[in-house]
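[SOLVED] Need 3D model of a two-part complex

Original post:
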Amino acid sequence: MLPDSLLQQVETPARYLGGEWNQIVKPAGVGVRMAICYPDTYEVGMSHAGLHILYEVANRRPDAACERVFLPWTDAIALMREHEIPLAGLETRTPLRDFDLVGITLQHELTYTNVLALLDLSGIPLRAADRTGPEPLVVAGGPCAFNPEPMADFFDCFVIGDGEEALDELLDLLADLPQSLRRRADRTHAQRRELLQRIASLEGVYVPSGYRLRPSAEGLLIPESRGEQYPSRVTRRVVRDLDAQPYPLAPVVPHTDAIHDRAEIEITRGCTRGCRFCQAGMVYRPVRERDLDLLVEQADEIIRSTGYDELSLLSLNCPDYTRIAPLIDRLHERLGPRRVSVGMPSLRVDTFSVGLAERLQRVRKSGLTLAPEAGSQRMRDIINKDVTAEDLLSAASAAFRSGWQRLKLYFMIGLPRETDEDVLAIADLIDDVLAVARRELSRAAYGRFKLSASINALIPKPHTPFQWLGTADPEDLQRRRELLYGRITDRRVSLSFSDFDATMLEAALARGDRGLGDVILSAYRAGALFDGWGEKFDAELWRRAFADHDLDLAECARQFLPTSAELPWDVIDAGVTKTFLEAEFGRARRAEPTPDCREAGCVGCGMRRLVPDCPPITWGDRGEAT
Amino acid sequence: MEPLIRHFAIVAFRKAGPLRFLSHLDLARAIDRAVRRAGLPVKYSQGFNPRAQIGFASALPVGVAGERELCQIELERPLQAGDVLRALSEQLPPDLAVIDVGVVSGPKRKHLSGLTRADYDIELAPSAESGMHVLAEAIERLMDAGTVTVLRETTSRTREIDIRPGIHSLEVHESGSEGVGPRLCMSLALQQDSLVKPLEVVEAIRRQLGDLTDRRVDLDVRRVTRLVLH
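Solution:
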């Protein structure tokens, strides 16, 4: 993409080379050419399992070719602009604007300006309405597609939910187009519209141009179908059988230090623990598992084809895999002799999980991370986090006895009905963990002991029981931060807080309507980019972008909506019904728990409409846990 | 006590094409993964974080190509050179191709530490061709000088160092073909205490040129290649 003379001038040129081990290069002339884009740096994007999965889904087809595209860092962007070099695929250096399909994953809201930069650097008109002929179809996917409205102006369509089968169907459609629609070069505006209408008929695909906007009682813009070709609600795609899905057994090995530079096997998808703040736990139901034998074979093959020395188990909640202990043992048995370490990123707060972690890390004891999420039991009941202080302390105790000397805890503040006492309970809990550490660790080890607490403000997300809530008042958040800094003085404890300005922006974008498209474009034009990268984030610039369109960023973030309100994302049927979410919201207010359906049977979340035998996994027949 | 016998494969490979832009760390990781894919019985270090025992003769800077770089791989048991060559070749891309492999067994732990010199070839932009005469004179003066100081930056400080003792030879050659600039060929010290970097030599030549002539002679570096390690 960049000529040698420019590669010499940029930071980490390895990001721009392509040609990695296991890269797939298809010959010119292959039917449908697709680019899969991650709107962040190479190191971040190459760490995303979904990108590798969709690369496999497309490239295993003889009639499709898929290339990777990442957003260059700011130094390379400046050089590309100066020398008028368009953004191109890593595999064949084909400019992005020459692909048939440009897929961009929306993993979180603070990448929205990066999406515009991807299009801009490719010379693709930013607004879908301005793409009137031969331009590629620009498709979104990922968790943020569950509220497509803020980015709806910029995409031709959104794929909602699991991408494997939906992408296959989209590629089928493009590969089998009638002659009149197939040729991209001389496609007319009318032909492009006809193509989009056909795409709208695919299940789980939302085509924003097929919806007109109507203001709701609360002043939100609500999309409404323009005609019967466009379903009144788009139903999320659910892959029923993970074992039947393609999985990359020879994934591309990044040239340079990716964030997660390791082999990964996806052991489960979805989570039904039911934490009320968690969007993934609502929109990826039900829990589906891969077969244990298949996973062991997949792991073996990926290690063989990549040479990685580390394998990570991918899941929203690894310990919940019904046969997690045998899986770990089998992986050790198979991969241990080849010196492959096996890790899992997510642990539950209980001794069972710590026992698993112990199994995984027989030698090296790096840090252990646990997420009690809230300090007081009342708050944990409100968010439906099925963990007690007792659980945390016995998990910590087990961890220290097993030799861990570093612990990381995740907490949230700004939760509904939270008081100062609830926040101070975080400090109490940390004190209790320190007391456990003092008791369990040797004097020397306690001297070295490090506890880091990461504290984030709640960001209410669409399709969760908290979707009607705004964020807490930023001043309250600041005050509560000071409260914690005042109370926690032990030098072993380090506190880190999320940037509350970034929190407010993420919240405003998460629950936004289509009116935010103009705001995002204004912010991009004013220079917003890499907003998720702390040092690049400019809160004042964003406040001005909102103000330019007569909106107040903080008000958008804090807006409380009645449960009767029509919501911009009601056009998406995520599987979990609004009735269920409202009932959960009520139970949150009464601090009532809701059990996991794998244990207690169906809780009526609405998934049975999409998956008749839901929940497919139950714990009734769960083997001996250890 | 009998000395411990260790088994090594000494691998010569290239770092070429776009992959010359890999950092040394990225290159080391690429070789490590290729060794693992090849299933070679590589020896691991002891301790909490066992590492494959693969050592490199000398790190190449980002962007510098290598015609014949060297690494040593310690093996659990002796292997035939041809087998290592075959297994590793299948697992490396053409831009990191294996050139040859030697195997050695004995008590020695470090087989690449005796290297003292490296030869470099620097391709300049074609515009330098017009200044060949003065370029040759600048090089002559530089080689005749008792000391040649350059500034070397490390992460902590910048200091002046004399690179003249580390320049074993330095010549300029016309490329002879249209559109390709002249090349600087040099042999530079590799040991820690007298190490010279090729671009430091270019900088020193630039300074000499400034003293010699008012005419601008472009010394735009197109490509730096390390040819061989001695």
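Edit: The two ends of chain A are 51 Å apart (CA to CA).
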